[in-house]
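Usage

Read records sequentially. Each one opens with the input sequence:
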Amino acid sequence: MAQNALQIALIPGDGIGQETVPAAQQVLLATGLPITFMTLAAGWETFQQQGTALPAATVDALHTCDGALFGAVSSPSQRVEGYSSPIIGLRKHFDLYANLRPILSVPVLGSQPDVDMLIVRENTECLYVKQERWLEEGESAVADRVITRRASARIARTAFEQARLRLRRNPQRKPLVTIVHKANVLSLTDGLFRETALAVAADYPDIAVEEQLVDSMVYHMIRTPQRYDVVVAPNLYGDILSDAAAALVGGLGLAPSANVGETFIVAEPVHGSAPDIAGQGIANPIATILAAALLLETLGEPAMARRIEQAVNTVLRHGPWSRDLGGDATTAAVTAAVIHQFEQ
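and closes with the structure output:
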């Protein structure tokens, strides 16, 4: 157990995030860990109220916290002057260079069995540097894709360290890091990513390594996801692969993620703000609860994180909604069921 109280920021954001984050907070309180909470503003609603989606006061307060749980954010479908994504802003400000996406089988219909994969996505560059420009306005646009040796090396090292960590937790595991790229076409950018990741692999002779072209990776991941352990990819590929992989294990409503840097972490569910059901009390809180568990794991409480995950799986396996995630259970009922199992 942590010696000192953890200070965790809660950023509900928009839509159902304002329901699922408080639900996850209840589960965190049920752990009995010494945790203090601070609720902070960010998102589209905040932009409409304050003219910024990520207020300076929020960023300043986060510097006093150990980590944050982010709910969801609504984004305008068209360009709005002055608006930018708060989660991307947080990634940049705190240099949250690694996005960790565990892909785990769960006891629900639609989840393939025996899947235990971690997708490690580079989180700061690639096309997501958002350097776009017109060559001929309305006719021709260009987006710069940035791949650096520094970012490639540190995300590759994160992947190999995660493989070692997973091996320590399960000595029966066969550790494998799969490097995903498209260097056969993008010989400079993906070539640099590939070359750098393979150089890092040389420092981990205890971890098997392989390469996959991104299109081939999608095919094999869908057909045989059980063979993969840790997958590392540039930003765009990792984004697409991780969302596709979530469909293998029950969907985005069960998928957590963590944005991790050297000194800070922002955990979040993968799903969006779902404005069509916001405020009705029927949002599925599982992904946010699992994100809270991932936050605890990264902050040095892996045993407690496992207990939360086990409670969730028990509820999914035996609860009345176990075979129908689109059923009529309420957010409060699911949260109470998880807490009940956790306290057994």
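Summary fields computed downstream for this record:
- The chain is about 40% helix and 20% strand.
- The mean pLDDT is 93.
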